[in-house]
Amino acid sequence: MSRRPSGCSAAQQWRSALVSLVRAAVDRGLRLAATAAHSLLKARWFVSRPKTFGAHAIALTPAGRIVLVKLRYAPGWRVPGGGRSEQEGRVDAALRELREEIGLFAHGEVRLACDFEESTDWKRDTASLVLVRDVEYLPPRWSWEVEQVCEADTETLPHDMSPVSARWIETLRPML
Predict the structure, then answer these.
(1) Is CATH 3.30.70.270 what the domain over 47-175 is classified as, yes or no?
(2) Which strand (E) or helix (H) includes residue 39?
């Protein structure tokens, strides 16, 4: 005779399994839609060759681990960050991105580490890297943009890192 966990009816188990299946299907569909939208943006950038500005954070926990995100529309683990207007401050933008992507609620020292002039996806981008120490965060339960958040040892980054993020981290390694 099979036994159900106490307090769990067959209907509750069935509902829980159905909710898990629906969530997985929605996540797959969202990844497909976000990837398609990003591909359309890249096609637009190919034609317009825009000048863009980005702010990205090398976010370190109190234990010295680096916080990384995996986006739904781009492969690999990467440092949190995103676009900013030319008028938005680089540090302010990086902290905003940390609040949006990882649920930042407290931090220690913050300083601009460097700016990179990059040409990615046919954009002319100025990418500002901001070093943020003693990051405390609580990842959102769900995000349309960020699929996962992880912490990694700065010496042993995940094997599937975004090449750009891996290069940025390597460049700033002496500061870490």
Answers:
(1) no
(2) helix 10-48
